[in-house]
Design a protein that fits this description.
Mean pLDDT: 85
Helix content: 40-55%
Structural class: alpha/beta
Number of helices: 36
């Protein structure tokens, strides 16, 4: 039987209108999952203050996915032909003239639809007149009372992702004049088309006809109907769920930048602080206020939904060009969305690339979540990039503001106001990009602000900490990182260098981006886990480092190993020049078996076809000049890391090193717990470790058949660096240098030992490991100050002890040929 002409026209129109409705597939997947969880149930979909285009959308999406098996044939609250099947509309029309007498009530027809397992759509209004219930609501209430196994699903439509702004009164004459002129000019436009956040039918039609892809349809919640469910309760729960879902996508009803500023600058406690600070500095309060406003202007974002939308469109083009796609865990992300409805999310990612700043925000925007306000270094605030970043939600922080009490106070209050306005924030726990490929020691600044605000009850919203792992198959700055690790100067951030760098980036491909989210943790849980058994003088100072290291540990646990990381791990572990491709493949197969046994995950390409993914990564490394090929005498192929690219290979090795750190320690210590603890102490400024007992228990759980002697070679470069630095200190007892000068001297000393052959691994000498050693030396007071910036050597007995321990560890490395024979025997 052919379809009625009206039905064919309706389907054709819907296919043209909703051709670019990106969120429809995710919405249908969610409905499919709900149907699977509620087998045999009857479904009612609620839409509030919706027009014809919303109904057409639902009908078209359901028809496209399920055909006639789960088809919306009846919509209550719509007039005539739009809400009922076409034949029934014709019958009702003729009944008005007495030509067709038999009519079935809407209630019976609705019940019939449910009995046949077809969904119903109810259109309700948000407005509620006291003492009056519409006929549509009476019908819904009747079905709730008479039908069993009923499930109600409120549906949210967001036609345009425009922020819902609180108006702030204009404070100057020009602003008021502009508003006076603009309002009457825009009034006819809004009367005809509606507000962007609540568009009328004509505006919706225009948006669909021009292929606007950012409109969103989603399930707000699932409400099973019970005997205790009332119509008023159902309305209230549905509206609350829709508002929560809108908050996830659009964020809260936000204030313009000036409104945020006023909230800070007019706070009575802030004015008290200004008065006290003016007395301390001996200047007028007006002068301090001007400085405070200047600091706030430098720090604060100037958020604009329109700019975010444009940036999202632009980044989609760029990322589609340079990356093969994003991988993420859907279950992890669902938890993030759910927690976003309950409170403020504080995203805490690692920091591997400049693009980290954009990647997470773009991903959240793409997945229909509001983008967070992101803490960024002041070095990125250059024209014109800085202005665009601020409009996209960046707030800028100076690299150092120690001793600047006013600046610190402005930053603290700004972060607190953001959270109190239910604005999600993001900051990088490492502070600066990791040039070494693994996580670097955490910086406490923003985390301390968040924890202090909670302890002092300055934040009224519930706070969730969300550790995030961002991993790349290849970072865009690998050559830049290599230069800096070898002692080269950092490229200055400015518009010219940004343009030149962008052109180079767009001409290359960088594989995939892997995003993983740890379980969102309420801040009170994160703090209670580390609360001291007895009272401490400064609770915040006690808690912040422990929470920070816990966050870093969770990020490492979520970081998947990549093909390039595994290939680099094997090649850089091999002492000497090279290995055959057969050796490489056998060793990689050993790693494939060990990764899940160690509790870590592989990126999806490795899960699908491990060896093929590794060989593709090897090909990319060869193409980039990091790995070299050569022919063997037996006709086979050998591979080796290019001498001048060992630091680049180390970067990719380090991206996977977190997975093999414990077996590396177990192998280097020759399965001796006491020696493992000694090694843990030596490496505490290079890696993150759990508590002593948990650390030992993890070592004991390593399978006996694991080739830990192979993994021991992964620590050789770190130990060589520490040994060289200790030797340099013992030879420099008469020197007084500042941090930078000590780093420079240690780097030069390391290069000399490399040339003389005392250090056999080129990657052992790098600026990151040397800086980590300087921090350890200052912490253990091997380098100490008498009050100034300069540091002098303080000889302590453990210096010689540590040197002896390291020599013993390095001398105990098992012969490579013996290690190789083990995996070469494996099939």
């Amino acid at each position: 039987m052919s379809k009625p002409v009206f039905a064919r026209i309706s389907e054709l129109l819907a296919s043209k209108l909703y051709r670019s409705f990106e969120s429809s597939e995710a919405f249908l997947d969610e409905v499919a999952e709900i149907r699977k969880q509620h087998v045999g149930k009857k479904f009612i979909f609620l839409i509030f203050d919706a027009g014809l285009l919303e109904l057409l959308a639902l009908r078209y999406f359901f028809k496209k996915r399920w055909g006639d098996h789960f088809k919306i044939r009846r919509a209550l609250g719509y007039w005539g032909i739009w809400g009922t099947p076409f034949p029934e509309t014709v019958k009702r029309f003729f009944s008005w003239f007495g030509l067709y007498r038999t009519q079935t009530s809407k209630a019976r027809l609705a019940k019939r639809e449910l009995q046949e397992k077809h969904p119903l759509v109810f259109k309700l209004h948000l407005g509620f007149r006291a003492g009056r219930v519409s006929s549509t609501e009476k019908l819904l209430e009747y079905l709730m009372q008479t039908e069993k196994d009923l499930v109600v699903i409120p549906v949210v439509f967001i036609w345009r992702r425009v922020g819902r702004k609180i108006e702030v009164k204009d404070v100057n004459l020009s602003s008021r004049l502009l508003r006076t002129i603009r309002t009457p000019l825009l009034l006819p436009w809004y009367l005809l088309l509606g507000d962007p956040t609540k568009p009328l039918g004509l505006r919706k039609l225009f948006m669909m006809l021009r292929g606007y892809s950012r409109s969103i349809v989603g399930v707000a919640s699932v409400i099973p109907v019970t005997s205790e469910t009332t119509l008023q309760g159902l309305r209230r729960e549905s509206i609350r769920a829709i508002q929560k879902e809108k908050k996830v996508v659009l964020g809260p009803v936000y204030k313009p930048s000036r409104g945020i500023w006023e909230q800070i600058l007019r706070d009575p406690s802030f004015l008290t602080f200004i008065k006290q600070h003016a007395i301390e500095e001996g200047v007028s309060e007006t002068k301090i206020l001007k400085r405070a406003e200047s600091n706030l202007k430098e720090i604060a974002a100037d958020y604009s939904h329109a700019t975010t939308e444009v940036m999202g469109w632009g980044l989609e083009k760029v990322f589609h060009t340079i990356y093969q796609g994003f991988t993420f865990d859907k279950e992890q992300f669902k938890k993030i969305r759910d927690k976003s409805k309950e409170g403020v999310l504080v995203f805490i990612p690692n920091h591997r690339s400049y693009l980290d700043f954009l990647v997470l925000s773009y991903f959240l925007f793409r997945e229909q979540m509001v983008t967070p306000h992101v803490a960024a270094g002041i070095n990125l605030n250059f024209w014109p990039i800085g202005h665009a970043f601020k409009a996209g939600g960046a707030f800028f922080i100076r690299r150092s503001f120690r001793g600047d009490k006013l600046y610190s106070e402005m930053l603290r209050r700004y972060v607190i106001v953001l959270m109190n306005n239910h604005i999600n924030i993001e900051f990088f726990i490492e502070g600066m990009r990791s040039r070494i490929g693994k996580m670097t020691p955490p910086k406490y600044g923003i985390l301390k602000v968040v924890i202090d605000a909670f302890l002092q009850k300055k934040v009224t919203e519930k706070i969730f900490l969300v550790p995030v792992s961002i991993t790349y198959d290849r970072v865009t700055e690998d050559k830049m990182h290599k230069r800096e690790l070898e002692g080269g100067t950092k490229v200055q951030e400015n518009a010219l260098n940004a343009v030149q760098g962008s052109v180079k980036v767009l001409l290359n491909r960088y594989g995939r981006v892997h995003l993983r989210f740890a379980e969102p943790q309420p801040i009170e849980e994160a703090i209670s886990k580390h609360m001291p058994d007895s009272e401490v003088p400064d609770l915040s100072r006690w808690l912040v480092p422990r929470v920070a290291f816990d966050v870093c540990h969770k990020i490492n646990l979520q970081t998947p190993v990549t093909p390039a990381g595994l290939v680099s791990t094997v090649l850089i572990a091999r002492p000497g020049a090279a290995m055959s491709q057969l050796e490489l493949e056998r060793c990689l197969l050993m790693l494939e078996k060990d990764v899940p046994r160690l509790g870590f995950t592989k990126e999806p390409e490795l899960e699908m076809n491990f060896l093929s993914a590794c060989m593709r990564a090897l090909s990319r490394l060869i193409k980039d000049g990091i790995v070299q090929e050569y022919k063997l005498q037996d006709g086979g192929t050998g591979v080796r890391i290019a001498d001048d690219e060992r630091i680049t290979a180390m970067y990719y090795r380090n991206a996977a090193l977190h997975a093999f750190l414990l077996p590396a320690i177990w192998g280097m210590s020759r399965r001796d717990e006491q020696k493992a603890l000694e090694l843990r102490n030596l490496l505490r400024f290079e890696f993150f470790f759990p508590g002593r007992e948990e650390f030992l228990e993890s070592l004991r759980s390593i399978p006996q058949d694991m080739a830990v002697e192979f993994y021991a070679y992964l620590l050789e470069d770190v130990l060589e660096n520490i040994h060289a630095c200790l030797s340099c200190l013992l030879q420099s007892t008469d020197m007084k240098l500042d941090d930078r000068q000590w780093s420079s001297r240690l780097l030069k000393y390391g290069h000399e030992r490399l040339i003389e052959g005392e250090i056999r691994r080129r990657e052992s000498v790098n600026t990151h490991s040397i800086k980590a050693f300087v921090e350890m030396a200052k912490n253990d007071e091997w380098l100490s100050s008498d009050g100034g910036r300069d540091l002098s050597v303080n000889i302590k007995p453990e210096l010689g002890v540590y040197r002896t321990q390291i020599k013993d560890f390095l001398a105990g490395l098992q012969n490579w040929e013996d290690i190789k024979s083990k995996w070469m025997e494996q099939k």
